[in-house]
Amino acid sequence: MKRVLITGGAGFLGSHLCDRFIKEGYHVIAMDNLITGDIRNIEHLFPLPNFEFYHHDVSKFIHVSGDLDYILHFASPASPIDYLKIPIQTLKVGSLGIHNCLGLARVKNARVLIASTSEVYGDPAVHPQNEDYWGNVNPVGPRGVYDEAKRFQEAITMAYHTYHGLETRIVRIFNTYGPRMRLNDGRVLPAFIGQALRGEDLTVFGDGSQTRSFCYVDDLVEGIYRLLLSDYAYPVNIGNPGEITIREFGEEIIKLTGTKQKLIVKPLPTDDPKQRKPDITRAKEILGWEPKVSRAEGLRITYDYFRSLPDEELYKAAYHREFVKK
Ligand SMILES: NC(=O)c1ccc[n+]([C@@H]2O[C@H](COP(=O)([O-])OP(=O)(O)OC[C@H]3O[C@@H](n4cnc5c(N)ncnc54)[C@H](O)[C@@H]3O)[C@@H](O)[C@H]2O)c1
């Protein structure tokens, strides 16, 4: 049985990856300090003999006994609210955390795949963004702690590949959504749906003309799985090229939820990217991958998930937003 370590395994994406590797017959070890994750995302896996959970901070020395075939480094605060609240931990997990994973990979002779992000492109001057574009990032702006951590993470991973000959893979993930996102993580989709469910108006930051491209989580996981098993060491964009303005997206959520509320406008945060759309030519050519789930279908599944949550989750979300504003 192949063995895989997934850091950030109790998070949104990490938990879906745990499910996928269990389904593929792997022994899965999830490592997480639960700083933004939730144990409930992986609770259903605890009875399985081929699943283990280590409650541990990846930025500290990591040890796993036995063999390891693959390490997937997904531990990192991932939403603007999270990384503005815990900026130093964000920088540490993107630097010390990946250094620990790469060291472990060398000892175990394992292949490493890292979760990078479209944020390495910053506020892009090239559209759509392809992997050869180097980005437009403000290192000292509020988003710098996340964007630069991810850029460093790519650089050190590539250095281990070229200098030590380690097998490495880099996925640049564009906005992904689906069940197990947190209602209070500040990302646009849970924010809109949470507001609709609480009967509040939906907040659009800026004039709403900025664009995003949303990928359903199952499509992303398929792309990551193919990339891990490929022999390609350079970055690959995985995302859905279906681009939409935030205003249009808000209108789609109003229609989906049937809320009587409307869109309201607030000032745009600093360094908010104006456009986001992956060029997925490389993923198509190298992995034979492209997204399959339409936005209508993915949003319906995600909305059903949020609707099934207990009421206190909805109000915890509202409280969290107030807390962050202070
Ligand atoms: N969701 C997206 O749209 C998206 C887009 C681009 C990149 N990514 C990347 O994917 C990864 C997962 O994102 P997500 O959306 O699932 O976020 P998430 O917050 O749900 O998951 C991150 C997980 O990492 C854990 N974690 C954070 N710091 C840790 C540490 N020092 N030690 C151990 N565990 C730690 C958290 O507790 C959480 O469970 C992140 O690296 C993120 O940067 C996500």
TrEMBL record:
<comment type="similarity">
    <text>Belongs to the NAD(P)-dependent epimerase/dehydratase family. UDP-glucuronic acid decarboxylase subfamily.</text>
</comment>
<comment type="pathway">
    <text>Nucleotide-sugar biosynthesis; UDP-alpha-D-xylose biosynthesis; UDP-alpha-D-xylose from UDP-alpha-D-glucuronate: step 1/1.</text>
</comment>
<protein>
    <recommendedName>
        <fullName>UDP-glucuronate decarboxylase</fullName>
        <ecNumber>4.1.1.35</ecNumber>
    </recommendedName>
</protein>
<keyword id="KW-0472">Membrane</keyword>
<dbReference type="InterPro" id="IPR016040">
    <property type="entry name" value="NAD(P)-bd_dom"/>
</dbReference>
<keyword id="KW-0210">Decarboxylase</keyword>
<dbReference type="InterPro" id="IPR044516">
    <property type="entry name" value="UXS-like"/>
</dbReference>
<dbReference type="GO" id="GO:0042732">
    <property type="term" value="P:D-xylose metabolic process"/>
</dbReference>
<keyword id="KW-0520">NAD</keyword>
<keyword id="KW-0456">Lyase</keyword>
<keyword id="KW-0325">Glycoprotein</keyword>
<feature type="domain" description="NAD(P)-binding">
    <location>
        <begin position="5"/>
        <end position="301"/>
    </location>
</feature>
<keyword id="KW-1133">Transmembrane helix</keyword>
<keyword id="KW-0333">Golgi apparatus</keyword>
<dbReference type="GO" id="GO:0048040">
    <property type="term" value="F:UDP-glucuronate decarboxylase activity"/>
</dbReference>
<dbReference type="GO" id="GO:0033320">
    <property type="term" value="P:UDP-D-xylose biosynthetic process"/>
</dbReference>
<dbReference type="GO" id="GO:0005737">
    <property type="term" value="C:cytoplasm"/>
</dbReference>
<dbReference type="InterPro" id="IPR036291">
    <property type="entry name" value="NAD(P)-bd_dom_sf"/>
</dbReference>
<keyword id="KW-0735">Signal-anchor</keyword>
<keyword id="KW-0812">Transmembrane</keyword>
<dbReference type="GO" id="GO:0070403">
    <property type="term" value="F:NAD+ binding"/>
</dbReference>
<dbReference type="Pfam" id="PF16363">
    <property type="entry name" value="GDP_Man_Dehyd"/>
</dbReference>
